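Complex 460.
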Amino acid sequence: MAKYDYDLFVIGAGSGGVRAARLAAMSGAKVAVAEEHRVGGTCVIRGCVPKKFMVYASEFSHHFKTAKSYGWTVEGATFDWQAFLAEKDKEIARLSGIYVRNLQNAGAELAHGKARLLDAHTVEVDKVGTRTADKILIATGGRPWAPKDLPGVELAISSNEAFHLPELPRRIVIAGGGYIAVEFAGIFNGLGVETALVHRGPNVLRGFDDDVRSHLAEEMEKRGITVVLGTQHTAIEKTSGGLLSRFSNGHEVESDVVMLCLGREPYVEGLGLEAAGVKLTERGAVAVDDHSRSNVENIWAVGDVTDRINLTPVAIREGQAFAETEFYGRPTAFDHETVASAVFSQPPIGSVGLSEADARKVCGKVDIYLARLKPMKYAFNGSDERALLKLVVDCATEKVVGCHVVGPDAPEMIQMAAIAIKMGVTKAQWDAACAVHPTLAEELVTMREKFVPMGLGQVA
Ligand code: NDP
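Predicted structure with NDP bound:
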């Protein structure tokens, strides 16, 4: 008789957990996955996927503005929030169903309920019971964080609720300057909601290249979003007209909805990690090594609960590396260097490698190649939208160490650039690729002149 009920027990059926569970089960291992909500996790249920549908929905208003110059008359176009939500939810349910089937087809068992560790080998799942496992994988993801001491914080929504608002607000205040804040500012603005984004920092998207950050903030304002920097909420109050946001700069703004996008935290609450002796980092994430193993020998963790790079494809790769190592005898560690990412702001961003500022710190002397131009689509319709393309090159090795794009299809472009940069492409090899015309992407391989900031004879 086997020592344990399962070879592997996975807690959390999101991107990382499902990938690990499926691969492990396909190796012949006996696998169970516990999930307290719907199968699919943040990405599928209340993150990337529904968010992208919302971006698509909201972009129509922008297309309608361009349509006239292309000969189209778009009259009386209206948006039905409820109709959209119904279609979106149908698709999310379909995708969640596919995740369930994929798990079942691989031979993994699903346990619906909140799971907690009783010790390093025992898991108790609400309404299911207690199970034992040789190996345990924690893949519970993250959840929105909000400052508990902010007066009126309970009146605000997070991204979780933004996907199911009973009605589209007339006015929204979005707090934060990260991925979620800029993406939802674009979404609500595009859907016709009077949108203000308020962020404590000097610019949005800390950590991104500075030219990208200022370019995006400018373009967001051009599209009608009020971007207020250098201040933050001190209180949210209910008024007869809606919600009043009070800010540290003394200003007040009334809106129908206040959405806090102030970061996410690892979801470890109620997991019983103490009972199993699993150590956390200072930020409350499960502390793991390069192979995603915690300090407890038979317990691993992947994805946002480890707070390394909080992106779906990273969680998937971490889950895959875990399964390869533990169930296929192929020790694999996911390389967290040079991971590309996209921000589905409007216009969107694609970014891979080092920002100019980071490259100056890491490489010393760098060359910058930069283009700002009007995307062809807007050539004759009076739009003043501009795209930005930027390459950062390490002078010592002549390698392209950063590529940053703001503009139509930037997320699609950056996937390709990421391959070359990950391979260590030099600027000369990059330029040897012939342009694809007429595209915005061709600018990336035709930038020959080094960018010299005004007032500087040479880029240091
Ligand atoms: P981010 O960490 O990206 O941004 C959090 C924002 O909140 C920052 O602008 C931060 O400011 C601000 N902030 C934090 N604490 C406070 C506070 N106490 N008061 C005021 N402002 C505060 O978090 P998000 O929630 O936007 O996204 C979480 C993660 O999810 C992302 O980092 C990303 O990894 C992932 N994600 C990825 C997406 C994609 O790939 N397209 C889309 C959505 C999410 P400051 O900069 O000053 O610290």
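The radius of gyration is 24 Å.
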